[in-house]
Structures are given as structure tokens and as C-alpha cells.
Amino acid sequence: MTLLLKSSFFPKPEIVAAKVPRSQRIKYVKCGYLPPSGKWNIIEEDFLNDNHGVKLKVLKRVLTNGSESSLQKLYMIDAMQRLNIDYHFQEEIDDFLRKEYVIYSTSGDGFGHDDLHQIALHFRLLRQQGYHVPPEVFDKFIDNRGKFNERLCGNMKGIRDLYEASHLSIVGEDILDEAEQFSKKVLKEMLLGNCFDNHEAKLVTNTLQHPSHKSLAMLTGREFFGDFHNMNNNGWLGSFKDFAKIDFSWQQNLHRQEIHQISRWWTELGLGNELNYARNQPLKWYMWSLACLTDPTLSEERVELTKAISFIYIIDDTFDLYGTLHELTMFTDVLSRWDIAASEQLPDCLKICFKALYNLNNEISTKIYRKHGFNPTHSLRKAWESLFKAFLVEAEWFASGNMLHSEKYLNNGIISSGVHIVLVHIFFLLGQRLTQENVEIIDGFPRIISSAAKILRLWDDLGTAEV
């Protein structure tokens, strides 16, 4: 996998394919061919109508208005993020939070006040933006027992924001672990004690079930169309909600177009008919891409990522349900060499699958090359090779009936989960190169890929349970 780091040294991809014809007619696609449908800009229509554009300009002026207090602007940013419209305001958000961090850094007493609600909100928004605010800002709320002061229990807004802030903890930040336990306990007790009106109860329930840092605003945004920070009569909040409703409709239309593109690609590819043992779930594959690349402006990248994800499922089903151990060994060997000629010796289903993946890999590489100026062909091939080899290890394991040692299973599972395939494609589709200079290598893998894959593998195998 260390060869993953060679992407920037390769010239233009050798071959390109727009789609794979059905059945036995799937052919090796020759160099230099890219049909008009393969161009990068899939959706060319204006993504905002005139009315939407006017509202956007007005809201940008509201956010940059110097007459608004810092707390009001924090509320605005929080509202925009929860309503899933913050991608329109990234420059303004970056500028404001940068200034807030400078003020915090030069203040002798943290945020300069003792308001739990404001401190927790400041802490969360700055950390989400990548600024390291130490957890010691909450020390002032700790009693002599090392616990959060019980007198905070009546501060519903503060407790709710403390709970939200606690989800941005990192290893070793015990005070934030304590903050999560304390705030969660208080909020649940207040719910059971009927301490809230209907709207507050719904807001607290949503917070406990879907803390903002661990949720997708596209799925939870409509839950925040009611009162927010007790500011239902505020003019800018109403404007944000109106804008969010229009934007939500536009995003729905965009996602429908993307699903249509994926469905058309999958139908024309023909693998659903040829590989009748494999899952035929293009909508499910698209949902993975939608969760990974939530920014509405990344439409092209979501479509291409979905294509790669579909092959993770197809290959997984091929190893689990179709091939014999001998056939899968041949399949892996051909893939390792990326040899079109050698693929002719494979059974028809495996040959079709290999050629389809071969063509897709080069099609995606060409698009990345044209948009970002580097060719990831070699790196993507090595990533797929590692997946095939990991699947083969598991096939040999099941065939022999011998249980793998837990550590070996986990190390192999990091690859067989397919997470590294997804992450590598995301990096390249976003124009990020994986080089020795910008990633840390752990056991042959970039740490950011290895760590995420390990977490998701454990999540998949062990499941989740509410503590």
C-alpha cells in the first residue's frame, strides 16, 4: 500500500472508458477515447434562481453587519449549520470565527465571562472550525469534588449546549467526558420530570438523539424550523428559515438528478443483468456518497464516488457468493497485474466484472487528471489490489474453517471493509494528493485512512449500543 503515494509521478491515464457495454461485448477501451457524456460538469443549470440569489446577498450582509453582537453572530452560524445552508456562507463564517479565536487567545480569562451557554457555544463552533480551544474553559463550572456543579441543572440552554460541545472531545479530555455524562443525565431527568413545554421537549429529545456534530444537517435540518435559542421573533432567523426552505427544495432536485445519473449509468453498464448473484442497489450506494460528500456543490464527485462504491459491493458478493477458491485466486492475480489479456482465462462473470472495473478506474482517473492535473491511476489500482487480496484472505479463511486471530482479523478487516477505497477516491476527487510530504504512514497506510477504516470496521462488526 505504500505505492499509494506515487500518484503525482504518473502522466495522463493510458485509457479511458465512459461505460461498459453489456454481456460478453465488454471490451478493453483504447487510449484517448472520451465521449461527450464523460465531461466533468454533469449539471450545468444555475443552482440558484434569481429570488434565491437576492435572498442570499441579503443574508450575507446580515452576517457581516457590524451592529450585531458576537453572540448574535454565533447564533446565526449555529442556525445556518443546523439548517444546512452554511455552505453558502463559508467565507463569512471563516472570517468571523478567525477573529473570535484571536479575541479568545488574547483574553486573560478564556471567554471573559461565566455564561455556560455562551462558552459552550463558542467552544463548539470554534472547534468545529479547526481551532483548538482547550477544555479548561469549563473548569470554572467544576466543584471541589471534580464534578460539574449541580447548580447548573436549572440552566437548560447551558446544559444543552454543554452536551453538544462534549461531542468534540479528543482522547484524554476527561472534563469533556464528564460533561457529556453530566449533561445527558440532567437533560434526561428533566424530560422525565416534564420540565419542558412541548417545543422544548422536542428540541431536547432531538439534541440527545442527534447531536449536531454527529448528524447530517440535510436529514435533521427541518427539526430546527421552530424556535431557536429562544429567538423565534428575530427577523434574521425568519429570513434564514425562508432561505433554507428554498434551498432544501433545490437540494432535493439536485439529488434526484444525481440518482437519475447513477441509475442510468448502472442500467447502461449492464452488470445488474449479467451478475445476477450480486446486489442491485444503486440508490443504497448513492446514499453512502451523499453521507460522505454532503456539500451540495460536490455533485460530480458524489456521482463518481458512487460508481466506485458500487464495485466494492459487487466484488464482495463475487467473493462471498460466486467464485470457487481457485477462481478467486486467479481473479486476484489478474487484478494485481491489471492485465486485460490475462482476464480472458477467467470465467465469464469474473471477466465481465474485471473489465468493468478496469474501465471505470481509468475513466475516473482521467476526470481527476483533467480537473486537478495529476493522475491517480496507479494509486487507485493499488487500493483495489489490496481489497482483492483482503477478500481472498477471508475466502481462504472460510474455506479452511480456521478462525483468524482477532488482531489479524482486524488488520485484514481494515482493508476488506472497503473504507480505504472510499477514502482514497474522496481524496483524489477533491484534488488532494497522497504524498510522503503530507501524510503519515502507519503500517503502509496513511494514518487518516487506516484509523477511519479500523473504526468503521469495529462499528460494523460490533454494532452500537446506547450507553
UniProtKB/TrEMBL annotation:
Keywords: Lyase, Magnesium, Metal-binding. One of its GO terms (molecular function) is terpene synthase activity. Gene3D superfamilies: Farnesyl Diphosphate Synthase (1.10.600.10), Terpene synthase, N-terminal domain (1.50.10.130). Pfam families: Terpene_synth (PF01397), Terpene_synth_C (PF03936). Its cofactor is Mg(2+). It comes from the Eukaryota. The keyword Magnesium applies. Residues 57-207 form the Terpene synthase N-terminal domain. Residues 268-466 form the Terpene synthase metal-binding domain. One of its GO terms (biological process) is terpenoid biosynthetic process. The keyword Metal-binding applies. This is Uncharacterized protein. It comes from Lupinus luteus.
